[in-house]
Hints:
- The chain is an alpha+beta fold and about 325 residues long.
- Helices cover about 40% and strands about 20% of the residues.
- It is built from eleven helices and twelve strands.
- The chain has an eight-stranded antiparallel β-sheet, with helices on both faces.
Amino acid sequence: MSSTDRTGADGLRGTFSLDGAALGGAQPVFEEFRHGWETEIGAAFPLPTFGWATTGDLRGKVRASKVQDAVITDLRVGSIIRTVGAHDDLNDQVRMYVMRRGAWNLALPRDRSEITVATGQFILRHNGRPSNFEVAPGTTARVLVLPASLRPLIGDRHIAGPAGSAEVRVLMAHANMVHATLNDLTPAGVRAARDALIELAKGVLRQQVDGAEPLLAPALAQAAKDLADSHLADPGLSPTMLARELNVSVRTLQRAFASAEESVSAYIRRRRLEQARLDLTALSVRPVITELAARWQFADSSHFIRAFKRQYGQTPAEYGRANRQIERGS
Length: 330
């Protein structure tokens, strides 16, 4: 199933998505992809020449968002993707490959060399040299096409590193927000989203995010939230730990949260209470209050009960009883 967004008529933005599996292999899936890309992303971002294995049996999911002179593309590959006839990327752009699963293989015929971007890695490179690429089924990746203004920081080399680095985490958090909000942004908002994207890419190249840049605060806060959400049961989770993992000071991190009117500690506490509430509504055997308090890192059951009642207006026991009554009534 494919979908497009026509709000990009101003030329600043465009989005489309395609689920090749949902189309049931019906031909021409590749033509759906090509049409969506050329209509919504545009001629400034030309597609390479793909081999028959790709054009004849394209399967997988694609989501692309254009933000002025940059594009964020997410791929979940269900069939081989292979280009043929090393293409000259004369549009003078920089590309970043971020691998979540699988590998992206780049062949550079002029240098008689190959670059493999493995799971958990990223590569940033200028696209000025002819290249081919091949992506195996089962690969999940994000590809950012960025303007040539980044080239002076790269030169003719490629920059590689772990996709879990602090700078990449913040960049990916911003890319997620662009995907989620692009259709609702004003032209000024689109420009701001683009500028933040470029600044965060520079942060990856310099291995340091400019925490004093106001444009980057939402991305930094979102990266911290994503990281916190994956460590809610960790006793070491704290503003200090998050700041350390994101390579910023605690003060910078607190400033990033200020616009949301919620401190880092308050966010962690709220999310832990949400998880405890979900445990109380689980259909399996419900844990006792002391177990919940320990699981979600509250100092003791009394502290947990007070915090839970402040957030939900009921004690955990009252909430659990009310939920069971609802279940019996249904």
